[in-house]
Every structure is written in structure tokens, then in C-alpha cells.
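Tutorial, part two.
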Amino acid sequence: MNLYQKLKKQEEAVIQSWERLQENVNRPYDLYGHDIGIHRVNMAIGGIIPTRVTVIGARSGVGKTAILCPMLEASLRKKSDGSRLEYLIFTWELDPSIVIDRAICSRVGLTLRQLNQGAKMLSEGAMRKIKDAYAVVSKFPVVYQMHSIDITHVRKIAKEFTEVCKEKSEIEGNKVQPVIVIDYIGMAMFEERGLRTYGIAEFMNGIKQFCNEERAAAIIFAQISRDTDKSGKIPDRADFSDSASIENACDNLIALHRPEYQNIETIYDPDSQTEISSKGKMLVRVLKGRDYGTGDFLINSDLKYFRFFDSSHQWGYEYWKDYHKPEFWMNEFDLSNINIM
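Running the prediction step on this input gives:
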């Protein structure tokens, strides 16, 4: 077969688009992608979607890696069609057991200091809750790779992981969606020392190509410039290290900003367009959104307990149940403004 015969024809692309539309029309009410763990982020990017690469950036201490807590909690929830997520986490910054510690704190409502230094003083009731939390956390569908490697080895491991997900899909009779998480890209290895920018570009392009080929999704954590530490500067695209390489290859580019961490007492609320108290608030900036566009919004961030949730919700609100209600989506889309003859 020659190269021309391998090209996808217009008719094939149209049929694929039409079939996807029919699937969306006929499927039960639900989030388009898989739950990423925070309602407002789901609404901003559609959740975790096959082939999509999402980059989440912030300064150290703001809470980017802590976002893993609600993400992994959400991995236990299947979609209405029975499909679910499975995670491969390249955890190059934190030991996997530390990720578990944070998940336990989030679920129980303890600080890391209480879980570690204060462990001997925990009551029997607290220990029962902690044991129950460990029982739940042990069911997270996650595997970890702990040592920094280059894109070639990431692809090899990720390929084996996606094959395992395919086997599980056949056994379970429902789609098991593979999700690749890299924490964080700045710790990746590159073949050519001294050519970091080119290395980042190759790494990001490799991840995007892999996701397209295997219909995997990827979430990549990144550091942003120290300049955002100055006077509470709000992060933008240019504040990502190697921003052009990262922005070009990703589908969603998200920056997190938490003025409270810098002892700044107020934060701008894009919804009310007013300055409000920064206590327990995080600004989420969707700087690039291939599917749904860009936008800024606040979420609640109780970093002491590694908890992140929608500003209009109480902690523990089961927002994912709303996704099955037609009235929720009617309100979300406000279809009264759509005129189709």
C-alpha cells in the first residue's frame, strides 16, 4: 500500500464525526469526558477526554500536585455507560506513599502534621476512620513509575499500560480509559544535555502523538516562573517554563494562582467582578482550551486538608450526580438562546 492510500478520506472523517454525534445524542445524560475531580474544571474542559493533553502549572506550594487528591477520588466513579479511568502516574517529585498520605488526609480531614507527627496521639475513633480511608484509597486504579526518564521510555511504559487497559476493557465489557500523569515535566530526562527547550518540545510532542495514537489522555504538571511570586502577579501563558513548547503541544493549558500562599489578603473573582477575601480560594485560569475555549474562575482550596471543590458547593457535595439530570444541562447551556431553523 502506498502512502497516498493510507490517507484518511473526507468521507471517512465525516462518517466518524456523524457517528460521534449519534453516540452523544443517544447516550445517557452525563459528563462528556471522565470526571477530573473538580466540578468547575469539568465544565471548563469537558473532563478527561481521550487524546487530550492537559497541562496544569503553578508555583511550588500553590497546590498543583495536591490536585491529584480529588482526581484520584473521582477515578472510583464510573460513567453511566460503565466506563472508568485507570491512571499511570510518573511521580518524579513525590514518592507514591506521600501521594497516599495526602489522599488519606483529604478523605479523613487531617493535616499531614497530624498524620505524621501526631500519629501516636490519634484516638481510636480517628484510627478507625483512617483505616476505612486506607481501604478506599487502596482501590484507586493507579500504578506508579518513580524515576525520571526520557520520552522514549515514557512511551514504552505507557504503551504497555494502554495494552493492559485494553485487556481489562475486554474482560470487564466496558471501556477502561488510560490516563497518563507526569509530575512534573521539568524533571524529565533529555538525551541532549544543555538543550532543554528542544528536549521539552520533543517530550511534549511525543506525549501528544502517543495520546492521539493510543486514544489515551494525559495530565502534565509544570512549574511556572518565579516572577509570579512578585506582588501576587497573576500567571499567564508566558510564565510557563518553555511556554511555547508546552502550549503548542497541549490541548488545555491551565494555570493555578493562590494569593493566600503569598499572604495577599484579596483575590479577584471573575464571576462577580469584585475583590473578595483570598482565604481558601484558588484562581483557575484556562489559558488554552482546544474544545471549550478559555476563561477564569475561582474554586475553594483547603490545602491544609488537600481539598479542592467548586465555590458554590460544600465539601463532600456529590456534584457528579447532577450530570445525570436533564435540567442541570438545560441550565448549563441555556438553550433558549440557541436559534436553529
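The chain has ten helices and eleven strands. In part three we will examine how such features are distributed along the chain.
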